[in-house]
Amino acid sequence: MKKFFLFLVLITLMSCTHSSEEYIDIRGKEYAGSQSCIQCHQNISELSANNSHTKASMPGLKENILGSIDDEQFAYTYNPHLHLKVQEHKDSVYQVVYKNGKPTEKYRFDILMGVKHAQTSMFWHQNKLYELPISYYQSINNWATSPGYDAHYPLFERMVKKDCFSCHSSNIKSPQPKGVKVGQEYGSTELSGQLDKNSIVYGIDCERCHGPAKKHVNYHLKFPKELKAQFITTKTKLNNQQKLDQCAICHSGNNSPQLKSRFDFRPGDTVSQFFLSNPSVSKEATIDVHGNQLELLKQSKCFTKDATLNCITCHNPHTNAEKNATYYSQICMSCHQQSSKNFCKVQPFQPSFKNNCVDCHMPTKSSTVISFIPSGSKKKKYYSLRTHKIGVYKKAEK
Questions:
Q1: How far is CA 57 from CA 52, 137, 172, 371, in A?
Q2: In percent, how much of the chain has pLDDT > 90?
C-alpha cells in the first residue's frame, strides 16, 4: 500500500517537469506547485513523498486508508444490534451502519487526515465536511471512536472547520460571502463551515514552508548553473525566531483568538501576526502534548539556555521523525557531555543510557483532549505522544 502511494506521488511529480509558465495553481499565479520541485530536488522530493507532512491530508482512496477494509467483519460494535462496517462498494470505501444485521445508511471516505499516530476521515455533504464516526489508531492497530464521538451511536454530524485544514493541507477555500471584500473575510468564511472541494491542495507541500515558488522555478530553469537559491525562502535566510514560528504556526497550540488564517502565513512571518498574544506561560503550567510542541519546549531549560535551539535542531521536516532513540541521544550528548556538570546524574550510571535520553527526559504522555473508545469497550483510551518538555521525570509512562 505504501509503495503504491509513493509510486503515484512520484509519477505525478515526474509528469510535471514544466517551466511553470503554463501551470496554474489554485492558490494564485505566484505558485509553481510542488510538482515542479522534483526537477532540481529529486532526493528531497522522494523523501517527502512518504512523510507525515505530505500525508497530513489525502484523498479517501482505498490505498490511502490505514485500517482494515473487510466485508465480513464488523469494524465497530456499539451494541449487539448496532454495528459499523468499513466496506468497499464499486470504486469507493464507506462506513456503513448495520442495524439488526441489515445495512441502513452509508457514508463515503472522501478525505483522510493523518498517518503517523492516527487517521480520521471525512465525507462531503453539499459544501460542508463531516467527520466519520470511527477512526484508525496506530496504538491499538484498530478502529475506535473518532475524536468528539462517543460509543453509544454512530453519528455523522461533527462538522470539520476550515482551520483544521490550515494545519493538515496547503490550501482550501471558502465561498466568498456576499457583501464582504476579499481580504476582509476572515471569520465569516473560516467559521461558516462552507468549503470549496475543488480548491484543496492535499498535505503540507513545499510551498507551504518555503513560500510561493513560481519566480524561483522559472529563474533556475533559465539559469540552471546558478546554485544559490533565488526567489525562495530557505532556512539560511531565517533567524532563529522565524524558524521557530514557521513550525509554531501549527505546532504551538495557538488557542488564543485568531486574527487571520494560517493559510496566509509565509516563511519569515511571526505567529503574533496571526494570533492575539498569549500571556507568558509558567514553567509549571500544564500543557497538553497534542499540538503544543513548541509551548512545551519553551518550558525546558534546554530551550531557555540555548538561543540557537529550534525544531530543526532535532527534526528534518522532509522526513518522518526518527524512531531511533540513539539518533536523538547523540544530539543531546552534543551539549550534555560526560565530562560536563550537566551530564546524567542517575547512579549507578549505565553505558546504555547514552543511547536513550528521550525515554527518561521526554517521556510519552497522554493527551487530555484527544480520547477514543475501542470497539466493545466503554473505557476511554487517550492519544499518546512524546512530550517536548525536556526535563527530569520521576516516572515515565509506558
A1: 9, 16, 11, 21
A2: 63
pLDDT digits (tens, 9 = 90+) for 73-120: 899 999 999 999 999 998 899 999 999 999 999 999 999 999 989 999
Cis peptide bond upstream of 103, omega within 30: no
Q: Which CA distances in Å does 292 have to 160, 297, 327?
A: 20, 9, 22
d(CA 24, CA 123): 27
SS3 143: strand
DSSP type of residue 63? G
Q: Which phi and psi (to 5°) does residue 134 adopt?
A: -125, 145
Per-residue pLDDT reduced to its tens digit, 53-69? 999 999 999 999 999 99
At residue 229, does pLDDT exceed 80? Answer: yes
Q: Averaged over 276-284, what is the pLDDT?
A: 69
Which helix (H) or strand (E) covers residue 326, if one does?
helix 325-333
Give the three-state DSSP class for 300.
coil
Residue with cell 527530569: 392
Count the Cβ atoms, other than its own, within 10 Å of residue 141: 10
Q: Output the CA–CA distances (angstroms, integers) from residue 246 to 271, 289, 290, in the order listed.
A: 8, 19, 18
Other CB atoms within 10 A of residue 259 CB: 13
In Å, the largest CA–CA distance within the chain is 71
Predicted TM-score (pTM) of the model is 0.87
